[in-house]
């Protein structure tokens, strides 16, 4: 491991609030911040373990995972907002209003990101920790955002509290998300029904688990594929 102590606070001022606050939340005495390891800047290094916080866009991690996992233990942390408040501001940051979002994050939401890296999930050097948070999401009326938000942009996310976490360290941990009441074998639509998920998210979940080698296709039911947990 090549450490560069002079990088101990690189990027702290430029990163979003949620990422910076989670870094401080998970840090322990002796941890080193923003260390260069094999040409990559790592959020935290704890002894020989690399700790990375990824709030979104897991696709951006692929090259880092490909290079580092064969040689290092890597603990990946991803937050999901159990409760969220929307704070609206003017384009220059003046407060307008604050309201609670009706949406509540759940563990299956992690598959919105895991669908981008399914081939790494069962690597013995990778552990995943999903952290459930209470957050504020800062919206600014700057005309630069999505049309779905009527051009309001998401300026920042702020951590209010960590309320729970779940760790995935082996294939059984991922398969435990499949409920006992699920038919065997099952279709993606049945998975969506039993878990009360939108079909699109259930499709991401079944695709990810299949590409990770944790589910196998065993036939069809009409036009729908049938899955069951892999015996491997």
Q: Which structural class should the secondary elements be placed in?
A: alpha+beta
Assembly of the depicted chains: single chain
Helix amount, in percent? 10-25%
Shape: globular
- The low-confidence runs, each spanning 5 or more residues with pLDDT under 50, are 2-14
Task: Round the Cα radius of gyration to an integer and report it.
Answer: 20 Å
End-to-end Cα distance, whole Å, is 33 Å
The total strand number stands at 9
Q: How can the largest sheet be summarized?
A: 7 strands, mixed
Total count of helical runs of at least 4 residues: 6
Order of helices and strands: HEEEHEEHEEHHHEE
Percentage beta strand: 35-45%
Average pLDDT metric: 92
Would you give an account of this structure?
By secondary structure, the chain is of the alpha+beta class. The protein has helices spanning 17-26, 62-68, 111-114, 171-175, 188-195, 199-211, and strands at 32-37, 40-46, 49-53, 73-90, 95-100, 126-141, 153-168, 215-221, 224-229. Strands 1, 2, 3, 4, 5, 6 and 7 form a 7-stranded mixed beta sheet that branches. A two-stranded antiparallel sheet has the order 8-9. A hairpin with a 4-residue loop joins strand 4 (73-90) and strand 5 (95-100). The two termini are 33 Å apart. Residues 2-14 have low confidence and may be disordered.
Task: Please render the helix and strand layout as text.
Elements: H1 17-26, E1 32-37, E2 40-46, E3 49-53, H2 62-68, E4 73-90, E5 95-100, H3 111-114, E6 126-141, E7 153-168, H4 171-175, H5 188-195, H6 199-211, E8 215-221, E9 224-229
Parallel strand pairs: 3-4, 4-6
Antiparallel strand pairs: 1-2, 2-3, 4-5, 6-7, 8-9
